[in-house]
Records
---
Amino acid sequence: MKKQKRQTKSFFKDLKIYTDKEVMAKQGQYPVIFITFKDEKHSKWEHCKIGLKKIIKDEFAKHRYLLKSDILDSFEKDEFIRILEEKADYVTYLRGLKILSNYLYRFHKQKVVILIDEYDVPIQSGYLKGYYDEIIEFMRNFLSAGLKDNEHLEKAVLTGILRVAKESIFSGLNNINVCTLLSSRYSEYFGFTEEEVLDILKYYGIEANFEELKNWYNGYIFGDRVIYNPWSVLNYVYNFKDGFKPYWTNTSSNDLVKMLVTKGGAELKKSWSNLSKVML
């Protein structure tokens, strides 16, 4: 791990984070498992299950070097290979996070950091396409195995757009710290702050356009901070000669909102109406 730290530390040299001594002291110190579910939008559970297996297989493949080490016995190597070949049984995939973190800990002699991005995407698809119970069962067991009572886990971070009820997939976890749009902690990290936007515009010599940019691209409030959409700001800077455009339009699906609005009961529609009045 020390060799890897020397190789990657230079990537951050010209970035602000490089000046944070506490953070940089931990850079490269932990083996990492990174999984994203962003593309798991399927119309059938069978297709979703195939996609989930491939995600787990791909993460194991990143750590194929473990097969060349002597920390795995013959049974564990066979299991590893079955996962790579997508021939492992269903329960083995459910235990994928726990299995891989165990192997990584034994190899690196260091606990593992697990990062899971957009965990709610397959759940939303399951809700819309009729396999909600199946995907909830998978996610509950998958996350519980990897995050609860995992002695090889240093820390885990899950990100998502939807707030999934704790009793549905997180009932097995008792040490979750939830940060929402209303939370002040980490609020400045969900996008660009006003100071950061000004720095970007000054760097490119277009700071005179700030007020107009503010009218177009700010408006997100996380906790007590006004946050700017990074995608919109960066696209504008790159194409500033073309003027301001709604770059964020159509970059995400609103299917769930549409379904709830059209098919929801009277109470939901009343709540939606009240929310709209507050926003206006």
Note: The chain has two domains: 30-169, 187-242.
---
Amino acid sequence: MGIGLLSWLRNRRFAQVVEEEMAQLIVFALEHTSAFLTWLSPIRRLQKIRQLLIRALPHSFRLWFCVRLVENEEDPMDWSYMLRFLANKHLDIPVQQSLPMVGRQLAQIHRGTSEAAMVILMKELDSSLYGGTELDFEVWKKKFRRQLRPSLNFRKGLASKREPRLPPLNPVQPSR
């Protein structure tokens, strides 16, 4: 009986050790498989491609996308924080600058924007946030978006400055 009990305990111990080792092996395989699948994930690849495409866009388009992201904010303070954060991330504008300075830099990035109008808009927001003046924020946001709307007319204004390439049709003969 003693030998049978010892052999049963020995087999039991062996089975327990094998079970523990298999559990560790399974945990190791799952951890590494999940890390590999995360590395292989198409979502991760698509996010990287999206980031590369965003970095390839001109600054004025990146600015427009930043403005579109913050337009859902209802609170002027949250809106200004979000705009500063996104402008810092995508346009390299320091977060610590005053709002009028941010407006000046945004106007320099976007060619069709009046710098004076942007500074005035940002001063209105600044006085609303820190000076306690009233501001109709929805109307203000519309004015702001109107200033920063991107245009696809890259050649706008160039046609009038350019000399004609072809001679006029049916040229007039000089009279003799």
Note: DSSP finds eight helices and no strands in the chain.
---
Amino acid sequence: MFATMWSVMRKELLDISRDRRTLALALLLGPLLYPVLMIGMGSLAESRARTQLDRTLEVPTVGMERAPNLVAFLATQGIRAVKAPDDVDAAIVRQEFDVALRISPSYANDWRNGKPALVEIVADTTRRDSEIPSARMRAALEGYGGQVGALRLLARGIDPSVVRAVSVGSRDLATEEAKRGLMLAAIMPYLLILMSFIGGAYLIMDATAGERERQSLEPLLATPASRGAIVSGKIAAACAMGLLSLLLTLVGFKLSAQMSTGVGRMLDVSFASIGRMLLILLPMVFIGTTLLTCLAAASKSLKEAQSHMTWLMLLPMIPTIALIVNPVKTQAWQFMVPFLAQNQMLLKVIRGEGIDMQTWGIYLGTGFAVAALLWFVAVRRYHQERLAISG
């Protein structure tokens, strides 16, 4: 059986090696595109944040003549009040400005009477461009209010600390590795899981649905070789292709991070971390390949098999979206759910957290069990006589 499986595996790898363009796309697209995409997006986000924090923020201000001291204070914080357009709300909606300020007509009277003077921050919170400018404006106004309030208390002979009944402090227990991996935690697991899941897609689809369409599968199934060995050889070839592509992708991540000057340089790309990621993604390579084998065996043509890629590429997104919408604490059962398990394990590596042997056992045992189940289903598919019939 192993001799047959080895022969089929060599045959499939030889077939795809003849199509050099397809081979290059399958092996090099991920290693070149995904690291550049990840590091590039991180660098752009970091550059944008640095620009918005460092540059002088021009804020259209309605009623700026009502609060000259406030305007002067904002100038010391890198915020310059400018004349507001006639309809400041419409200007914000049209994205002419990220944030605006509206000073209440009663500001001067309230100020003289020692009452809270109303100042409104005008922004569209659904637009990410307004996040940093709004935060800068809010921090400056709160700082100004705190200073003025303290001076008013001192003028009345009252210690400003009296109004603070509780002094709140905070201790951040996040490790430096976790902080560095925070920006990459949203996109990196998805890219790696997707790459491992569909890394051998073209080979296994062509080796099953493609050969069935070309009517070259029937002679192979008519040989004395067991169908289990035949399908195992095809799966092994696709897994080898997927593992090679995944390994090149991880090497690409490592090189990109080392050459990056932004967030990518903060990523832990040691050989130990790369090795853990490879081990984590190993079950997903087998799960993806065996699942694709089952789907391709049920398809009458290569195009029909390729049509499954639309929803298959969405599967790795499910845990990422679910954790963003509804963050949950890490529990043992999560390491038994495909895609969610890979996502949680990769997050541990990105955050620099240790993984105990029990977690490794649960994860690897469940992952390979799912792959074995899908392999069994694929073998049963190959035992169906209609598989050899095209059309």
Note: The chain has a mean pLDDT of 83.
---
Amino acid sequence: MTKEEEEAEKNRVSKLSDFKKEQELRKLNREILRLNMLRGINTGELYTIRGRYKLLLQEYGVPMMVWYGAVWLTTGSALFVLAEVGGMDTMAVLAYADQYTGFDMVSRVDPTLGKLGIILILNELLEPVRLPFVVLTVKPVMDRLFPPKV
């Protein structure tokens, strides 16, 4: 786009009402999504898991990361509550791990921090379940929280 074309477009847009600007932005966003879809079809990316995930990130971006963070915090909090209510003995878990690894973590780890560490490890072990859950649910959740403006 040349400078003259850019200035002409700025001038045109400055004369639009807020409603007309919103309408035009919605139309442009739909066109961008359509073009990204066509690009995915032409390159074959649309037919791979990686390509679909990439398209999902392009479409939802930050909201998807926020949703992932919320799910991560929820699972971590649930594990923490279960550990507290269930009375998880951190030292027993570490002693069990020491048997298999040959390390002496029991004597070096504070029980409170050890509990948090074990909860973080358990939370990360849930990743193979959490990530597909987030990918499968991000569209319905975001559409419900932020209905698409057509």
Note: Residues 59 and 102 are 48 Å apart (CA to CA).
